[in-house]
Design brief:
alpha+beta, PSTPO5379-like, PSTPO5379-like fold, seven-stranded antiparallel beta sheet, four-stranded antiparallel beta sheet, about 20% helix
Length: about 270
């Protein structure tokens, strides 16, 4: 049995998390969990965790680090009171040696004592502020996943991790672009202000109608494409590093935390084991 997206947009956080945890909802999380920080997910073996943390520290726009688990502990204790990372994301991608193997809705059978989970801020958080201001977001209104593109902007490497930045695109009315920039800048844990506005070719995007991830979205009339750094960037770095096993969220399918989206730093006190 699945749970309706429109219903979940109106429900509270415990009910939403319960629907995800039990597998009743496995769709995208854009527009869900209003008021709370959403996060991208990367799970790696401990012997690669420090290099990945360095990669995030050196590239904070696409990789704003908001939480790290203890080695072998599946509970994200600084992000929520009952977040078991093995079942709290609607859909996970499983990578073997840098290649996408499959997508699943639960990773309990894959978790091991040498794993470390990283949570990175997500643009879905600032989208709530845009919607509250009346700025239209086509992908939310049409129940699709935001389009994401590879760019030609290089990230700073760390150990085996290297990538060119991935961006997410939202086409906005020209008279709302400055407002959207100002609003999103308030959320440094959710990528902050855009990295580019306007011509996609200037950042190496060849065809704006064919995203590398997510769903195509129209750039209507005189609307302006606006690009934010995207948390899929670490997945590109993972392809380069080729760890024997890595688990991420499926693009668009995020972890919803207990951290208020207005927070400048994660402030939830760690929960006891």
């Amino acid at each position: 049995m699945t749970t309706d997206f429109d219903h979940l947009r109106r429900t509270d956080l415990p009910a939403l998390r319960g629907a995800i945890r039990t597998g009743r909802y496995a769709g995208h999380t854009a527009g869900l969990g209003r008021g709370y920080l959403q996060a991208n997910l990367v799970i790696l073996p401990a012997d690669m965790a420090l290099d990945f943390m360095r990669f995030c520290q050196r590239n904070p726009k696409p990789c704003p680090l908001v939480g790290v688990s203890d080695t072998g502990d599946a509970m994200m204790r600084t992000l929520g009171r009952d977040i078991d990372i093995r079942s709290e994301v609607p859909a996970y991608n499983i990578y073997r040696h840098g290649r996408l193997e499959r997508s699943v809705t639960d990773i309990t059978d894959l978790w091991s004592d040498d794993m470390v989970a990283f949570a990175l801020g997500c643009s879905f958080t600032f989208e709530h502020a845009l919607m509250q201001a009346g700025i239209p977001l086509w992908h939310v209104e049409n129940d699709t996943t935001v389009p994401m593109f590879r760019t030609d902007r290089a990230c700073v490497p760390a150990g085996p991790f290297s990538a060119r930045m991935v961006v997410s695109m939202r086409a906005l009315p020209p008279d709302r672009v400055d407002e959207a920039v100002a609003l999103s800048r308030r959320y440094p844990l959710a990528h902050g202000a855009p990295v580019h506005v306007g011509d996609p070719a200037e950042i190496g995007i060849i065809d704006i109608t064919r995203p590398d991830w997510g769903d195509p979205a129209p750039v209507k009339g005189d609307h302006v494409p606006v690009y934010w750094a995207c948390g899929v960037t670490p997945q590109v770095a993972i392809e380069a590093a080729a760890p024997p096993l890595c688990i991420t969220h499926r693009p668009g399918h995020m972890l919803i935390t207990d951290i208020p989206e207005e927070a400048e730093v994660p402030v939830l006190a760690p929960q006891a084991a």
